[in-house]
Structure formats: structure tokens, C-alpha cells
# Entry
Amino acid sequence: MKAVVYERYGGPEVLQVRDVPVPSPGPGEVLIEVVCTSINLSDWENLRGSPAYARIGGLRRPARRILGSDIAGRVVGLGDGVTRFAVGDEVYGDNLAGGGGFAEYVAVPQAALAVKPPQLSFAEASAIPQAGAIAAQAVALAEPGTRMLINGAGGGSGALAIQLAVAKGVRVSAVDNARKSDFLRQLGAEEVIDYTSDDFTRHGPYDVIVDLVAHRSVFAYRRALARGGRCVIVGGTLRTLLRMLTIGPLLGLVTGARLGVLFVRQGPSHFVQVAEQCASGRIAVRIDRTFTLDEVPAALAWHGEGHALGKVVVAVRNETA
Ligand SMILES: NC(=O)c1ccc[n+]([C@@H]2O[C@H](COP(=O)([O-])OP(=O)(O)OC[C@H]3O[C@@H](n4cnc5c(N)ncnc54)[C@H](OP(=O)(O)O)[C@@H]3O)[C@@H](O)[C@H]2O)c1
# Structure
């Protein structure tokens, strides 16, 4: 089968399109014929081996040779003990631990998958699992009528989080680069801040801050929080992560604010509700561009270099309905 493979950390140029064996599904796994896969910031981080936590399991060389964790496709084979799916089922899910989506076939644990809602295309379904789980758990922290700031709001998770929050009656402030301002307002943000020319920690106060690309000090976050407010980081630099885990709780004890890390729980129980809202038309999956499997290096560059409004999708097969 055709797959996009990498053997060392680097930019999109280290990716190669190659012929590799079709994987065999192990116990509890299903073999999926991939129709679409979407790109997450975690793919870009695992490609580059940066931040440092992206090298867990592969300090010098990547442990997994094929990236791509958000997958939508058709079940074509069953490993021992698979009970939830049958050959022919249309499924989608996030194989965050195993990756393998930048390929024509991938073996995925059945526990990571759900049946694709018929109202969603494969492209739309592939754009939801990881970003949807992050968005749902972030928005669950905010109450209707409160002010929530999302930093890194113009990407995959942010675009879903803004819509989920607005639908819940939360007042959203969105931070990203100025090219994304109109997009963020269309999604429902009432305040938009350009991170290239402004400092969101000088605005506020906010009841909840969710940082998807965190690199600020705990004191800066504290400054932007309302009394009793809560700040969580979801991704960002290792330094910020460590500070949030160590200094964050101490600062919280003194000031009453809650500062910490949102460890996102993965799996269908966390993204299916988001997909259902997309299927019903309550919120929308925002796909910026679609690339072919051969174009995965260009797709990762497009995403990683900050052009994308919402999600970037790779159509592995030419059938996205
Ligand atoms: N905690 C967990 O368990 C867990 C699990 C999975 C993923 N994650 C993390 O969750 C995050 C989700 O990201 P995603 O896939 O939604 O990312 P994404 O689609 O790449 O979106 C990130 C957005 O942040 C913007 N951005 C970049 N630098 C920024 C800055 N300094 N200030 C403000 N905005 C900035 C980007 O815009 P431009 O680059 O265009 O400027 C982009 O619009 C990632 O950090 C990932 O590592 C966490």
C-alpha cells in the first residue's frame, strides 16, 4: 500500500511516499481502508520532534514511521475479539497513540472508533475526533454567561470550541493572527485579539482561559483571570507545561485562581457528542483545504506554517461523500 513515511525528525522534506506492507489487525483492532485523515498540531509536533514531549518513546528517531491519527474510512478486516464493528462499517476516530493515517490502510483499536454519522462526509468526520474531544472538554469548564478566552483559536480545536461555547451561551474572546480575525468573528467570537500585535493577558478579566499553544508565565495568565477564574493549558512549550504543573497550584493557593493543565481524555465518548452537533447542523466543521495522500508534505507545511483556517484534510481516496 502507499504510505507517507518518515524516519527522522525534521520539516515536511523528511516525509517520503513509499510502498509498505498493509498492516495486520491485532487482537481488538480493525483494519480500515482510509478515505480521509485530518491534520492536527500533534502531527506537526511529532514530525518535528518538538516540543520535547513529542519525543516520548522516540528520543532520537520517531517511534512511529507513519503519522496521521484522525481517521475516517471503511472497515475491511477484523482482529481477534472485535465485537463492535463489522466489515463494511463506515467509521471514524483518533488513533493518537498509533498514528498510521497517512496511508491507504491502518489498523486501529476498536475502542478508538465510532460509526460515522451518515450526515457527515468522510472529510468532515476525519476533522472531528481529536479537535472535538479537546474542544468539548475545554468548553465544559465554562458556564453560560461567563467570559472565556481561547488562545490559538483559529485552528482545528479552537474553531470547534468557539462554536460549542457560543451555543452554550458563553461569551468568547478569541486569540490568533490577524489573518484569522474575520473567521473568528464568523464563528461567534465577540472579541478578537491578534497575537502578533497584542497581548491577551493585558485584556480581560476572563472567567476561563484555555490556551492551545501556551508559552506564557503563570503570572501573566493570573493577571488576565477574574477572581476565582480558571486557566488551563492544552498544548504548548514543555517549559510552560512544567510551570503550570508546579508553580500554577502554588499561585492558585495564594490567589484563589485555578491554573493547570487539561489532560484531554480521548475516545468516542468525548468526540461523538461533537460530531452529533455537526451532523444536526448546530455547529459546523470548518475545513480550510483538502490535499491528496501524495501531497501530505504540502498539507503539513500548509498547516504548520499557519495558513489554515480551521482544519486541513487529506483525501486518501477520491471519494469524500
Ligand atoms: N493535552 C492533551 O492531552 C492534548 C492531546 C492532543 C493534542 N493536544 C494539543 O492541543 C493543541 C490543539 O491544537 P490544534 O490541533 O487545534 O492546533 P492548530 O489547528 O494548529 O491551531 C493552533 C492555532 O494556534 C495559532 N497560534 C500559533 N501560535 C500562536 C500564538 N503564539 N498565540 C496564539 N495563537 C497561536 C495558530 O495560528 P498560526 O500558526 O496560523 O499563527 C493556529 O491557528 C495542540 O497544542 C496539541 O499539542 C493536547
Q: What stands out?
A: Residues 238-255 form the longest helix (18 residues). Residues 40-42, 45, 130-131, 134, 151-152, 154-158, 175-177, 195, 212-213, 234-235, 262-264, 306 surround NAP (CB under 6 Å).
